[in-house]
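Tutorial, part two.
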Amino acid sequence: MPLKRYQVSIAFIMIFLFILTGARPVKRSKKVESPFEKLKREYITYKHTEKEIKEEKLKEFYSKFEDFSERGSEKDKLPSLYFCADVMEKLFETTGNERYLEKALDIYKKISINNNSFGIAARKKLELFNFYKKDKNFTSSEKSQGSESVGSTATQTRLLSIKKESGGNFTKVIIELSNKSAFEYKFLREDPEANKPKRIVVDIHNAVIGEGISQNIPISDEYVDKIRVGQFTKEITRIVIDIMKLESYKVYLLENPVRIIVDVFGEQTKKSAIKVDEKVNQ
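Running the prediction step on this input gives:
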């Protein structure tokens, strides 16, 4: 049994050395959240979960991001500037004041010259909002000369109806509009703490809710629970589709008549459908 006695002796020596040197178990240090990352997290949480978005609170976020963009570390300056624009965009959505939109566009223009993810995102934002501005500035005289709007006429868009069709593995939501208008959409994950389900949000610009449209439309099929409709700002109509279950989804525009189509799939049968783990409209 010499080997066993040897192993026991080694174990006692190790214990003795551990006590003698006052050794402590090595703890893994937690990654420290930087002040900018903390601010970004607080803003995103506020933006997506707060029921009543306040103008003054958004201005407070803007001031903090602006401070990071001017006096923060080099790696935080560009992201901070991007979030300055994002806050201005949110202020426009909340108040309908186009001064905020103009400020957001000015910042996005500065960022768009960069060949990185922020530059790409800024160029997409500029494309979307320039599209929106063309919708608003398109006059009847320009139309009579043969010009065509990229999106819609100057007439304010009305939400005419919301219908649904169900198939074996999908639900199709059909949003009928009086005319074309700029729109954007995003997927929001389930938030159990706020008692919010998974949902697809569609924001239609320069639009109002037509007569006879219910604010709550029950669907209650396998994939969609209900559809909620509201006038998010003076010029943005928001449609929220509460999801029961989905694997992927697809949002697209059809004409004659003008319709925004939202397809919710239970199984991924569409190659062009968006998986729920993909980023949409950062």
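The first strand starts at residue 157 and ends at 166. In part three we will examine how such features are distributed along the chain.
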